[in-house]
Each structure stands twice: as structure tokens, then as C-alpha cells.
Design a protein that fits this description.
8 helices, 0% strand
Length: 169
């Protein structure tokens, strides 16, 4: 009798639920992370094909870390797990990646003579710039947050009462 049907909304396919949303991909953070993923993967392939194959682990680890961050930011995973300091983790990931990519790129370009090592070094230098730009922008966001005092909308707690050792209760 008079069943009320739920409004029909288009169902997401499995592929659409895994891919990042258009809003995230077009944001500045999304473009930087996708650039980091792409450059790390290209560097990984170039190092794997070169005589400098000893450096293949750095681009692979950075590729996986950047891919995880794309997943975390696009699915709002970072907002559900507030126990982690996501901006700090992202900042440290970018700082270490830019330093290590810079070092292995210098070694790959200067020491090895094959073309794929040179290509891996060039893509490593480009990845260094992208990672450095990302950690610069994260640093500016953290600095602005700290300038505001890091205040949230919660009421200030009474720390003196919580930590007092007096027995005057």
C-alpha cells in the first residue's frame, strides 16, 4: 500500500569510490600530491631501468607515502583520525623526500653515465622542487596557525585546578 520510495541517487561504482573527488584533484594540495605521486613513480621506473638501481627504494617509498596521503586527504581519513598530527606528518614526509631526492639525483647525474640514470636524476630534481614547494606551503599554514595562537573553539580548561596538589578539597 503506498510504499514510499527512497529518492534514487546514482550509485557509485567501486572505481569511483576509490578515485579522489574532483574538488580534491583541482585543489592546490591535490595537484601537489598527484605531482609527487607521478614524479616518484617516474623516478622509480627510471632508477629500476638504470645502472643506479641501488637508489630504487627511495622513489618507491616516497611513491607509496604520497599515494597514502592522496588517499587520506581525498577520503577525509585525516579528519576521522584526529590523534595523528597530519600536517606535521605531511611536513616531515615532504622535507625528508626533498632532501633525499636531491642527494640521490646529484649522485645519479654525476656518477652514472647511462641515459636512464640521467633521466632519473632529472625527474628527481623536479620531484625535489615539488616536494620543497609542498613543505614550504605546509610550513606557511602551520606558521599562520601558530600566529593565531592555535586556538580552537573549545572552552579553556582550568589547568590549575586539574593539576593542583593541595589537599584543601
Amino acid at each position: 500500500m503506498g510504499d514510499i520510495e527512497a529518492p534514487s541517487r546514482p550509485r557509485q561504482t567501486v572505481l569511483q569510490s576509490v578515485l579522489p573527488s574532483k574538488e580534491f584533484v583541482t585543489s592546490r594540495k591535490g595537484m601537489l600530491l598527484i605531482g609527487e605521486v607521478a614524479l616518484s613513480f617516474i623516478s622509480f621506473v627510471c632508477f629500476a631501468a638504470s645502472t643506479a638501481a641501488a637508489f630504487v627504494t627511495v622513489p618507491l617509498i616516497e611513491f607509496l607515502a604520497s599515494l597514502f596521503m592522496v588517499f587520506a586527504y581525498s577520503t577525509n581519513f585525516n579528519k576521522r583520525f584526529k590523534g595523528f598530527l597530519w600536517p606535521l606528518m605531511d611536513f616531515l614526509r615532504c622535507v625528508t623526500a626533498s632532501i633525499i631526492f636531491f642527494i640521490i639525483s646529484i649522485i645519479a647525474v654525476s656518477k652514472y653515465v647511462d641515459g636512464s640514470s640521467k633521466a632519473a636524476g632529472i625527474f628527481g630534481f623536479i620531484a625535489t622542487i615539488v616536494f620543497a614547494l609542498d613543505f614550504y606551503l605546509i610550513f606557511n599554514e602551520l606558521a599562520n596557525f601558530l600566529k593565531r595562537g592555535g586556538e580552537s573553539n573549545e572552552e579553556p580548561s582550568r589547568q590549575q585546578d586539574d593539576f593542583s596538589d593541595s589537599d584543601s578539597d
